[in-house]
Amino acid sequence: MGATVVTGIGIIAPNGVGADDFWSATLNCDVGIGPISRFDASDYPVRLAGEVTNVDVERLLPNRLIPQTDRVTRLALLAAEWALNDADVQLESRPEFGKGTVTASSAGGFEFGQGELEKLWSKGPEYVSAYQSFAWFYAVNTGQISIRHGLQGPGGVVVTEQAGGLDAVAQARRQIWHGTGLLVTGGVDASLCPWGWVAQLSHGRLSTQEDPHRAYLPFDVNACGYVPGEGGAILILEDAASARERGCRVYGRIAGYGATFDPRPGSGREPGLRRAIETALADADVSPVDIDVVFADGAGLPTGDRDEATAIERVFGTRSSGPVPVTVPKTMTGRLYSGGSALDLATAFLALDSNVIPPTANVTELSPECNIDLVLGRPREHELTTALILARGYGGFNSAMVVRADA
């Protein structure tokens, strides 16, 4: 099996739109979390979110798409367009079935669905849009991206919450191995509407803090939950040989991947994250000493943070080169669900390209249960060749991905 490389990146995030703006904001430690503006959240116990506010999404898309798409799909369409432009790929010159799409989603089109339910209750079924039949669905981003760009090859959607972005890229990587020349992949989520908000509140993991700089503090002694957000990243995957042949820019390669599922709660068994990490390292044929930086999941809850820190320490604690640097740049955006791990993956490639580890924002005092080398406050210059990205999805999903700068 040949190497699978990333040739394009499209980012749409609360603290930056487009890869360049996002990377600059991330290195400046610009926090994109703030009071919710998309609806009146004053009567809810949680009032902060990471919103994409600095782009007129509707203006950048064809008018015909607006009535049939939810906000999540509009964000995904823009990120996909930017990723394809970044890859400088001529899709029309590729085989009809040699290009496909695999995306991740955790919610589908919640806002669209809420609007149609309101019409059903207030006016009657004849006022419900026919587009409701697909605009709410988990696979809608895959479908709309495929239609817009003529991607008639393999298609799919992965629904594993925060782990989904990595899982979708792994599935796209398999399709490259099977002979598909190009895959558009990644994850974008957006469910900042009253219906989506109530769904997110139901599991009790959101932070009720009202200070954007103190609400989401993974690995901190004051960790009290997380702040949700919207957005994510879309990446273009190609076979390394084909990418070299057309002379395009290569950000790096997907070197290894592992996924596990946590044991039943109360079983007393170890969570599955460590096994996912070890599987990804083995798949990449690297050892712990080869990893230059870990992009952590960063649950923002004491138990989740402790479990992740323990997994990292068990894998990397004995390496002779010293502790591995760990970072959680999503402290600037909030947790974006399936978009979060895809954004971390894109950020890892930008870090490899710059030899800079982005910082973790807002965290000031590490919990004594989290014995990790967390990069705090400001970027850390560091020679980077290999990165590990971790993601944990609500319900027990664990994913780990190793990426390398060399193609």
TrEMBL record:
Entry keyword set: Acyltransferase, Transferase
SUPFAM superfamilies xrefs: Thiolase-like
Protein name: Ketosynthase chain-length factor
InterPro entries associated with the record: Beta-ketoacyl_synthase, Ketoacyl_synth_C, Ketoacyl_synth_N, PKS_Beta-ketoAc_synthase_dom, Thiolase-like
RNA-binding listed as a keyword: no
Homology family: Belongs to the thiolase-like superfamily. Beta-ketoacyl-ACP synthases family.
Limits of the Ketosynthase family 3 (KS3) domain: 1-405
Transmembrane segments annotated in the record for this chain: none
Annotated source species: Nocardiopsis rhodophaea
Pfam families: ketoacyl-synt, Ketoacyl-synt_C
